[in-house]
Amino acid sequence: ESEMFPPVRSKLPADTLEALAEQMEARKAELGAPVLADKIDMTKEQLMELAQEQSVPGRSTMSHEELAATVAPPMVSG
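and the corresponding structure tokens:
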């Protein structure tokens, strides 16, 4: 991801990137994988805590949306 996505992002128009992101989120949801919607309602502080626990590099400079897109959702006990 860190090698492939930056060049793709720099060469594709924003609307194409948005469409690809929507397709990827839909496919992840179909497969039962965590999606952005699972984390978007969390506070930035909650996301930062998860990012720290998950050792996400660059977390201190990320926006709420970037953190939500990057961290894995919290594990739910059940």
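(Above: one complete record from the training split.) The chain has four helices and no strands.
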